[in-house]
Design goal:
By secondary structure, this protein is an alpha+beta fold. Helices cover 29% and strands 14% of the residues. The strands form four sheets. A six-stranded mixed beta sheet has the order 1-5-6-4-3-2. A two-stranded antiparallel ribbon has the order 7-8. Strands 9-12 form a two-stranded antiparallel sheet. A hairpin with a 2-residue loop joins strand 5 and strand 6. The protein is globular and about 60 Å long. Belongs to the protein kinase superfamily. GO terms for molecular function: ATP binding; protein serine/threonine kinase activity.
Length: 368
């Protein structure tokens, strides 16, 4: 059933990882392999660029059967030395879920590497949730999502993460959940993408070893930065998910140096105080009672997820219980704080208590 290895490459190796050897040994896990000529042809010589990132560029393409695809062409100078490429194939090839983007193929010819995904016409969630205070419009597409849609996205991402953590044959920890990595189909159904930082591990293991901090500033769980905050586990994804949900709620980045009041600079603190004082949240676009209930539910869930100690965060199946349950059953969590003087907060009482993590860890198997 479970695969007893973690597919993560040695970061400090003097030699580049033998990607070809990995692919030969795991071809049964891999999607279709294309040559670079095929990649050029399907993208019409990289004519339509969809996006740019630290890994390289994404282009729109079309397969011979007419299906539209998104082709991620990795930069030849990509500092990961093949690690992210192999992680992506090893992780996503094990998944099959409506809220996980499908990897349809890949290409590797010397330094040329590309990954071919199903095309998501509405792009990333990032384009739709950050409001420009001056113009009151979304930064990119001038299209504001309604609360029903935001809530549907939050539930869909939670289902995808719950599947990665519990539903597929090997537990997968994503390590880079953020709005940029949540893609939206034509009906704004979300799919988790970009598994370059992910890690596979035995299902029976609850904690894991990592080499270096993994993730994006603003969404990285505290234990990934400083181990005294707790063990690294699937709860690290829960933290990132909570930060993302709070950005969806506030329709702004959680840290806003340009906030009107210094008390609003860190959004989780600001929104927590309003919850604690039973004040109206005053969130953009939440006018009806149903919308206010959805926004309040997402806020409470987000704050539970960003508890500093991973033991006090709910698992993703508990998150789904909270999102799909009654607002009256949710308790306001303790304020997330990094102060060591604050006593340990109580466990949430929205359902059965979150199971404590096993304390054992295991060594990472490197591919070289």
């Amino acid at each position: 059933m479970g695969v007893g290895v973690c597919y993560i490459l040695r970061r400090r190796s003097k030699n580049p990882p033998n990607v070809e050897e990995f692919l030969r040994n795991h071809m049964s896990l891999s999607p279709k392999r294309y040559n670079y000529f095929d990649v050029r042809k399907m993208t019409n010589s990289f004519k339509e660029k969809l996006g740019q990132g630290g890994y390289g560029s994404v282009f729109k393409g079309q397969l011979l059967d007419g299906r539209l695809v998104a082709v991620k062409v990795l930069d030849k100078t990509n500092k990961g030395d093949g690690e992210e490429f192999v992680n992506e194939i090893a992780s996503i090839s094990k998944t099959c879920h409506v809220n996980i983007v499908a990897l349809l193929g890949f290409c590797i010819e010397g330094p040329k590497k590309a990954l071919i995904y199903e095309f998501m016409p509405n792009g990333s969630l990032e384009k739709f949730i950050y409001i420009d205070k001056l113009s009151k419009t979304v930064f990119h597409d001038h299209h504001q999502l309604g609360w029903d849609t935001l809530f549907k996205i939050a539930v869909g991402v939670a289902r995808g993460l719950e599947y990665l953590h519990r539903g597929c044959c090997t537990r997968i920890v994503h390590f880079d959940i953020k709005p940029h990595n949540i893609l939206l189909d034509q009906d704004f159904n979300p799919k988790i993408s970009d598994f370059g930082m992910s890690k596979l591990c035995l299902k029976k293991e609850s904690t894991m070893s990592t080499m270096g901090t993994r993730g994006t500033i603003g969404y990285i769980a505290p234990e990934l930065v400083l181990r005294t905050f707790g063990k690294v586990s699937h709860k690290s994804d829960v933290y990132s998910y909570g930060m993302m949900v709070l950005e969806m709620v506030g329709q702004r980045r959680n840290v806003d140096a340009g906030a009107d009041n210094t008390s609003e600079i860190y959004f989780p603190n600001w929104i927590y105080k309003r919850l604690e004082q039973l004040e109206e949240l005053g969130l953009c676009g939440a006018t009806t009672e149903d919308e206010k209930e959805l926004s309040r539910k997402m806020t409470i869930v987000g704050l539970w997820c960003i508890q500093v100690d991973p033991l006090h965060r709910p698992s993703m199946n508990k998150v789904l219980d909270m999102l799909e349950g009654r607002i009256e059953d949710l308790e306001i969590p303790p304020m997330p704080t990094f102060s060591s003087s604050v006593p340990n907060p109580p466990m949430p009482t929205f359902s059965s208590s979150v199971s404590p993590l096993h304390q054992e860890t295991f060594s990472t198997i490197s591919i070289s």
